[in-house]
Every structure is written in structure tokens, then in C-alpha cells.
Write a structure and sequence with these properties.
Largest sheet: 6 strands, antiparallel
Radius of gyration: 19 Å
Strand content: 15-25%
Structural class: alpha+beta
Order of helices and strands: EHEHEHHHEHEEHEEEEHEHEEHH
Shape: globular
Number of strands: 13
Helix content: 25-40%
Length: about 325
């Protein structure tokens, strides 16, 4: 792959979401990796600069290392479409839908894909009613936020009010979700359409099963198992499910899906799909890619080479 042929590249990092700190770490890693491969790459923080500068300064393509709102939700993708600058990851609609956990679930259900039962709630009282319907434990979380920000695992009805307050403080749209007890796994996908492939499954073993923001990014207490240790047929079935989920949302380029496996039935349940996955030292896409022999630097280069536009033919 000719790095020079990729042109002048902006790595979007930071941004204005609640995940700014993680995005800065991801973007810094990606920037260093691309530069090490000879790419003419530059850091670009949309919280500090006008996106219009990308066009004025002659950038040829963009690596999106933003996480959360104003970066992973279709807004930046739409701006780049208008400017005609190819970008990494899914397009406008796929990014927007995937950021909205309710819309994602509705599409997956329509496609016959398994996902935990849920309720959208608008108050603490509705959260308590959802708890009665979904049972204990129950997850309460913002609909349009990531990295477990604003998420609570509710064990008793008395916790519903605080859980709703925490989630609604991040997003006026709040959902309650059935908790699936069992193995927690994540699966990256690289590619587009028929060429998309699921990378090895990573099994996540967090302290006390608490895979929260701190354990995701800032401690070494969480164990990540690759190979995942699941039966071969089970891993292949989960990879196939994730590819269906990826294509159902019309994703392209890359993404990472989170799945829970019911300990009793071994049924996998789709939780959500991340369309701008983390690329920090603790991140999971590089970890899974490494298990196939793909280095962090080559992964960044491959993702960058897949940059495309919705209104132009997908690049190979």
C-alpha cells in the first residue's frame, strides 16, 4: 500500500462528547501509527477548529477517531459528505442509527436478530415500572452515549430513581434493558459488504463483572481473552451474527459489536455496535487484529485506506 497515495490525512480526535478524553488517546495512537507508515497525517480537533478548514487546507481523507456524539453519530460524517472528503467508518445514516441504541434494536428485531428485551422510559416512575417488567438485574443507560457513561446496573427498585437521574443527565432519551448474565464478548468487523469479515472474538473478564469506564480505559484489572476460549462452533456462530448485525445497519469500513452470551442457554444477544471503535492501549479492535497477525500500524493503514463517501462508490 502506497502511503503517499493516501494524500494529506486529518485524524479527527478530541471533539465535544463525554468521551473526549478517550478520543484524544485513540487519535494520538492512530496519528503516530500513520506517521510511522509514511502517511502525511495531521491531528485535527473539531472542538478547537472549524471543520471547514479541512477543505480549505486541502485534506484528501479523514480518519475519524472521535467517539460519542458529534463524531460517531452521523453529524461529522454529514459535514464530510458535503465537503466531499472521504472518511473512515460507516456513513451518515449507519452512524446515526448505530449511535441510537433504540433504533439499532428496532432494526435488529426487524431482521430477526437477538437482542435483550428493553423499554424506553421518560421518568423515574417509568423506570420502576420497567424494573417490574424486565426483572432484576436491569441495565439503565442513555440511548445515545457510549463507554458505559451514565449506565447503572439496577438490583432493587429503590435504585431506579438514581439510575434514571444519572442516565437522563447524559441524554434525555433513556432506556432500560434486560440484563443477560453470562459471558461478555466483543467482535470487531473490518471491510464492507460481502468483503466484510469478523475478527476473532474477545472474551472480557472484568472485576466482579463490572466492565465500566474506569476498567475499560484506565486500569489493568480487566482480562481480555484471545483466543476467547469458547467452543469453536459457538465463536463462529457469534461472528456470523455480528456480520448480520453490521450489514443490517449498512455499516462499512469497520466497527465493533458488543454481545452477551446467556450462561444457561448459550444464546448470544447483541447489545450495540460501535462505529468509531477505540484505538487506545486498552482498546479491543487492535487486540483482536493482532491475533490475526495484523499490527496496530497496519490496522490503522487498512482502515484509512477504506475511507469512502456515501455518495461515491466505495473504495476497495
Amino acid at each position: 500500500m502506497d502511503a503517499k497515495a493516501l494524500g494529506k490525512v486529518a485524524v479527527l480526535l478530541g471533539g465535544r462528547s463525554a468521551e473526549r478524553e478517550v478520543s484524544l488517546m485513540s487519535g494520538t495512537g492512530v496519528l503516530a501509527a500513520l506517521k510511522s507508515k509514511g502517511v502525511d497525517a495531521h491531528a485535527f480537533d473539531p472542538a478547537e477548529r472549524d471543520l471547514g478548514e479541512l477543505k480549505r487546507e486541502g485534506f484528501n481523507r479523514v480518519f475519524i477517531a472521535l467517539h460519542g456524539r458529534f463524531g460517531e453519530d452521523g453529524t461529522v460524517q454529514g459535514a464530510l459528505e458535503i465537503m466531499g472528503i472521504p472518511y473512515t467508518g460507516p456513513g451518515v445514516m449507519a452512524s446515526s442509527v448505530a449511535m441510537d441504541k433504540l433504533m439499532t434494536k428496532r432494526i435488529w428485531i426487524a431482521e430477526g436478530l437477538s437482542t435483550p428485551a428493553w423499554r424506553q422510559v421518560h421518568s423515574a416512575a417509568e423506570t420502576r415500572a420497567a424494573f417490574e417488567a424486565l426483572g432484576s438485574p436491569m441495565i439503565v443507560k442513555p440511548v445515545r452515549e457510549g463507554s458505559t457513561i451514565g449506565l447503572t446496573k439496577v438490583m432493587t427498585a429503590d435504585q431506579c430513581e438514581a439510575a434514571y437521574a444519572l442516565a437522563s443527565g447524559q441524554d434525555p432519551m433513556v432506556m432500560c434493558e434486560q440484563f443477560i448474565a453470562g459471558d461478555e464478548v466483543t467482535i470487531p468487523v473490518l471491510g464492507t459488504g460481502a468483503q466484510a469479515r469478523a475478527l476473532p472474538v474477545i472474551r472480557i473478564v472484568a472485576p466482579d463483572g463490572n466492565y465500566d469506564y474506569q476498567h475499560k480505559y484506565f486500569t489493568d484489572d480487566t482480562k481480555y481473552l484471545v483466543p476467547c476460549g469458547l467452543p469453536e462452533g459457538e465463536e463462529a456462530a457469534i461472528q456470523a451474527l455480528v456480520l448480520q448485525a453490521f450489514r443490517a445497519l449498512d455499516c462499512r469500513g469497520w466497527a465493533r459489536a458488543d454481545v452477551m452470551i446467556d450462561a444457561k442457554t448459550r444464546q448470544p444477544y447483541l447489545l450495540e455496535i460501535n462505529t468509531s471503535p477505540g484505538m487506545t492501549s486498552h482498546s479491543l479492535v487492535p487486540m483482536s487484529a493482532r491475533a490475526t497477525g495484523l499490527s496496530y500500524e497496519d490496522l490503522c493503514l487498512q482502515v484509512l485506506a477504506s475511507a469512502a463517501l456515501d455518495n461515491a462508490p466505495h473504495q476497495a
